[in-house]
Amino acid sequence: MAASSKKYARPVYIVDGSRTPFLKARGKPGPFTHAQLGVYASRPVLQRMPFEPEEFDEVIMGSTMPGPDEANIARIVALRLGCGDKVPAYTVHRNCASGMQALDNASMSIASGRSDLVLAGGIEAMSRAPLLLHDKMVTWLASWWGSKTISAKMKTLFRFNPSMMAPVIALLKGLTDPVVGMNMGQTAEQIAHRFNITREMMDEFAMGSHMRLHQGHENNELTEIEPIYDNKGNVYDFDDGVRPDTTLDKLGSLRPAFDKPYGLVTPGNSAQITDGAAALVLASETAVKKYGLPVLARIVSTEWAALSPAEMGLGPAHSIAPLLMSEGLKLDSIDYWEINEAFAAQVLAVVAALNDIDYCKNHLSLNSALGEIPLDKLNIHGGGVSLGHPVGASGARIVLHLAKLLEARDAHRGVASLCIGGGQGGAMLLERETKLASTIAKTATKSKKAASVKKKSATKKKAATSTTKKRSAK
Description:
Elements: E1 13-19, E2 23-24, H1 34-47, E3 58-62, H2 73-80, E4 89-92, H3 98-111, E5 117-125, E6 131-132, H4 135-146, H5 150-158, E7 168-169, H6 170-174, H7 184-194, H8 199-218, E8 228-229, E9 235-236, H9 248-252, E10 274-283, H10 285-291, E11 297-306, H11 315-326, E12 336-339, H12 344-354, H13 357-363, H14 384-387, H15 391-408, E13 413-420, E14 424-431, H16 434-473
Parallel strand pairs: 3-4, 3-5, 12-13
Antiparallel strand pairs: 1-10, 1-11, 2-10, 5-10, 6-7, 8-9, 11-14, 13-14
Helix pairs in contact: 1-2, 3-15, 4-5, 7-12, 10-16, 11-12
């Protein structure tokens, strides 16, 4: 397959980033709103920056269902962070990849020369997804408010039926594709059947996700997490959906959730409904040198792909293949992988698809199978099954964690990818060029030293002038 490079025209660097713990929804609104999560994810990283928030060129956040008082959530977060009235902000929506889309938009803005500093990320408080009214109830309310006389209001009242008050659950609607009429779990069942992914394979992967996340917490390897506090003084400092005590027996006892009674996908091997946010500072080479910023990783390129909504879980395969081909890379060129775990079946199916010669030829336009992603390099600190999938935030989280992982392991390349509701896939290639980062850091240090010397010289000159004036006065 011939594919043109999707590299950005100018280098785009991840300077730093942080995120909130991902908090499992427990049947009622969680302790934090979208705006609070966005601010809490962003504030720590901004406090580490040598520039003021007003110096951002723009703020971009991904989100799919912010609250009624949070329209254009990115702008609200920007203002509450102290970015000031003059820093523009906007919100993007690409379902599960909204956070990655925000990073891609920021990267394109930097690569084009329009921006040098951008705060980008993703936010979702899924526990606060709105409950909506049925059309019949809305119509009845319109009649009620439109009735001008007591007689008209009484007639309207008699037409009321309590069944009209049943809420429309926006979260369930959002997780169901309106074109093919399948919810996301049913699409996972479909691709599991295609690649012979068994229930045992799913549960084993799910248990591994919990174990890897727990180990990551225990070893303090998720350094991007920042503790947050609610208004009652409670502290949240880890992803609380993790179940270190889970076993294959416990997972095996759970019933199918989407294809009853014979399905394989259960709540235990699916992503959790979760609240969370992640924020990253992206910069051009000019900004890195100007402010003496660290270089965590470089965003090399991004690939978006589409496929049937009925098999949306295979989206990563459709975006990973052209991403690697466009850069002339093979699977073994990648040190670490982050593939969002919407479902254990979905991640396993992506791995199987890329290693299946027929699928690669017939659906990915390859001449042979791309190869098998090593599981010991995939989601090594868990994923959506164990820490949750707050839809608008996950794309930013996996990119941030991958960048931190490359730094911690002194690794060179990584790929972050997601499946996307509606039948799409997104993939982002990161590189950590140690020599390049070192060169930029040295240049930045020299610039800072020169500026410091210049500032000291100016201060001495000013002091000398002041002394001379005082002597002249005497």
